[in-house]
Amino acid sequence: MRLTDFWERLEQVFGPGYSRSVAHDQVLSQLGGRTIEEALAAGEETHKVWRAVVAAYPDRVPAKLR
Entry's Pfam families (predicted)? Predict the structure, then answer.
């Protein structure tokens, strides 16, 4: 998954303003206690980060974006 696709999906799920807040502020155990931004900056693959988002917010991510 390209990084631009990742950010587009995150915005679809959380909205354009809140998605950046989630990426910056929410620590996900699925990412080893890092935020989305920290995981991506550390070189984590986008599809792995996306899977962590889906696992952390299963009720929020629609089936078509999983």
Answer: DUF3046
- Rg (Cα) of the chain, in Å, rounded? 11
C-beta separation of 13 from 50 below 8 A: no
Give residue 25's Cα distance to chain centre: 11
Read off the tokens for 48. Answer: 């792995």
- Strand, coil or helix: 57: coil
Which pTM value belongs to this model?
0.92
3-class DSSP state for residue 36? helix
Instruction: Please give the angle made by the CA atoms of 2, 13 and 11, to the nearest 5 degrees.
Output: 55
* C-alpha 44 chain-centroid distance: 11
